[in-house]
Structures are given as C-alpha cells and as structure tokens.
Design a protein that fits this description.
about 325 residues, 7-stranded parallel β-sheet, 5-stranded parallel β-sheet, 12 strands, elongated, binds NADPH dihydro-nicotinamide-adenine-dinucleotide phosphate, binds (2R)-2,3-dihydroxypropanoic acid
C-alpha cells in the first residue's frame, strides 16, 4: 500500500489472534485501531471506532447494520468478518453502498465438523451426565440400565445443509467422520442435491423424510430467512422419540421453546447445541435445567490453529479490499 497520503484507517472490533495482527502491522499505510479486549465491543464504542474507517474487521457478535455503516461514513470500502457465517451483516445495505465483504470459509471446516461429531457423541452417550454423576457421588455401582444412550452403529443420520461443513471439499467433513462408526444410511436435505454426496452414498431427501427417518439429525446449514425457525414444533413432532438433535449452525434455526417442549415431554431423546439464541444463553434458561440437553458455548472452530488461520485470512481479506485487489475469500454479494 502506498504511504502517507493514502493512509487507510482500519477498525478491529476485538482482540484477535496474533497471526492476523502481524499481517496488518506489516502493511504499509494502514492505521489500525482496535477494541483491545476479549469481550465484545460496546455498541457505542463500535459506532465511535468505525468513524471514518476505510476497513472494518469484525466478528460474528457485531451486528453490522445501517447505523454502523452510517457511522462509518463514505470511506468504508471493506468489511472483513472473522467467521464463515455472515448473518450478522446486513448485506442489502452493504451491497447498496458498494462495500466489499470478506469471510473465512473452508479454514474452519475441519475443526467445526470435529466438534459437531464430539457433541453428537457426548449427547448420545450422555457424557456430561456421566461426568456429573462421578463428581456428585451418584455412581454407586455398575448398573445394567444406568446412563444408557444411543449408539451410531446401524443408525440413520440426517444432515440438514450438506455445505462445506456438511461435506469438506470433496471429503464429507461430518459424514466422513461418522461413517466409521457404522452408520447405515446417510440422508441430507437442502436446496439442491449434491453430486459429491455419492461418495458417501448420501441420499437427498425432502426435509420431512429426513426428520422422520433419522436417528440423529445434524443441522449444519447457514442461517437465512428460509432456515430461521426451521426446527420448530412441527419439525420435532415428526422426529423419532429415540432421536438425537444436534445444531452447530446458528441458534436461530431452532425455535428453542419448541425444543424445550420436545425434550421435556420425551418427544425426542436428547439435543446437543453449540449455538443458541441468545449467546451467551442466560444461566437460568430452561434448556439448562434439562439433563438431556448438552449446551456448548459456540466453540465449533475453537482450536488454536484454526483461530490463527481465521484471523490471518480475515486480515488478508481486509488488505485486499483496502487495496482494491483480490481478496482470498470474498463473499459474492
Ligand atoms: P456453506 O455455505 O458451505 O453451507 C451452507 C449449507 O446450508 C448449504 O449446504 C446450503 O444448501 C444449506 N442451506 C441453505 N439454505 C437452506 C435451506 N433453506 N434448507 C436447507 N439447507 C439450506 O457453509 P458452511 O458449511 O461453511 O457453514 C455452515 C454454517 O455453519 C455457517 O453459515 C455458520 O452459520 C455455521 N458455522 C458454525 C460454526 C460453529 O462454531 N458452531 C463454525 C462454522 C460455521 P444448498 O447448498 O443446497 O443451498
Ligand atoms: C463462524 O465462523 O461462522 C462460526 O460460527 C465461528 O467460527
């Protein structure tokens, strides 16, 4: 980037891994300011920090809407989010203003698929309950019917949204990890059938079929107006009573009141959630009172290396946008 006259102001909404910071520090003509905290930037500080910025590097917890864009003003050329999900960005407004958007697909796929499978196993084999019983003295002896769960062997797994995380390039990230457990059928639903699904004998089925025939349902679609509230009372009522529900996409795909009812009434066996609405989920939330609901604090991509690569990619996207050149991962608006 060329020197002083073209000084580009960048605002970063959080403390991010050093891999990304180093890239920005080495970029000439870039004046970086940052909300230097592990906690989210307060809205008032975001509105202040973004003023006059040419580039904004944000996270999924920052709602980037008309108010933020107005506060930034006409300089803003690029928004780079350190996430693959972009439901926190009001794209219609961003597009209207000709602002480019970078995001971080692919680099977190493996980590997220791994966590999703871990959550599925923890939920179906009741690991948190077991750990709690050991700690609280509830473990009195080996008992034939105590803490039994559901195994994957011979089961039918249904994946809603066979995208990057549903698959992983031409390996199927979640599917590939589940098949060695002896899964018998793999169903998936979404907007379109995928040619790559043939590699794991994946069957493209209507959502209703997936819902009623699966023993395990994994939600890995993006959050859109069509998927918001997709998993509701009607959805849960079609599931088998022995089925397990896993969500690692976005909390808003699920109607949590309906999920609570389904879990507490025995309509479904258990649920594992890496994502909720809101985040964090209040500690007095009804879902947290249920033994058959495992809730994680949105840690799908949380490995040190993945977060480092995500921050580097977010920084490179930002610089590409500032320089008016290619961005390694630009979202098509
Ligand atoms: P992709 O864009 O590759 O996949 C999204 C999938 O959603 C596509 O297969 C798409 O299907 C499907 N989809 C879109 N609309 C619908 C619909 N109406 N009904 C059913 N399926 C639909 O994204 P990724 O796989 O990379 O990521 C998916 C999501 O996972 C992200 O958007 C993010 O929200 C979440 N995520 C969560 C993480 C965590 O930490 N828990 C980490 C990373 C991502 P089709 O191709 O047929 O349109
Ligand atoms: C994303 O990137 O969208 C995840 O939710 C967090 O990594």
């Amino acid at each position: 980037m060329k020197a002083a006259a073209k000084l580009m102001k960048v605002f970063i909404t959080r403390r991010i891994p050093q891999e990304g910071m180093k890239i920005l520090a080495a970029a000439e003509g870039c004046e970086v300011s940052q909300w230097d905290s592990d906690e989210p930037v307060p809205r008032s500080e975001l509105l202040k920090g973004v003023q006059g910025a040419h580039g904004l590097l944000c996270l999924l917890s920052d709602k980037i809407d008309q108010e933020v864009l107005d506060a930034a003003g006409p300089n803003l050329k690029v928004i780079s989010t350190m996430s693959v999900g972009f439901d926190h960005l009001v794209l219609s407004e961003i597009k209207k203003r000709g602002i480019r958007v970078g995001y971080t697909p692919d680099v977190l796929t493996d980590a997220t698929a791994e966590l999703t499978v871990a959550l599925l196993l923890a939920t179906s084999r009741r690991l948190p309950e077991g750990v709690e019983e050991v700690k609280s003295g509830g473990w009195s002896s080996w008992k034939p019917l105590w803490l039994c769960g559901y195994g994957l062997s011979g089961s039918t797994v249904g994946i809603i949204g066979l995208g990057r995380i549903g698959k992983y390039l031409f390996r199927m990230a979640i599917a590939q990890r589940l098949l060695p457990f002896g899964v018998k059928r793999l169903l998936y639903s979404g907007r379109t059938a995928k040619s790559y699904a043939a590699e794991v004998n994946g069957e493209f089925v209507p959502l209703d079929t997936l819902t009623s025939e699966s023993d395990f349902i994994v939600v890995s679609c993006s959050l859109t107006p069509e998927t918001q509230g997709l998993c509701d009372k009607a959805f849960f009522s079609k599931m088998k009573k022995t089925a397990i529900f896993i969500n690692s996409s976005r909390g808003a795909v699920v109607n949590q009141e309906d999920l609570y009812d389904a879990l507490s009434s025995g309509q479904i066996a258990a649920a594992g959630l890496d994502v909720t609405t809101p985040e964090p989920l209040p500690t007095n939330h009804p879902l947290l009172t249920l033994k058959n609901c495992v809730v994680l604090p949105h840690i799908g991509s949380a490995t040190y290396s993945t977060r480092g690569v995500m921050s580097a990619l977010a920084a490179q996207n930002l610089l590409g946008g500032l320089q008016g050149s290619d961005m390694p991962s630009e979202l098509t608006l």
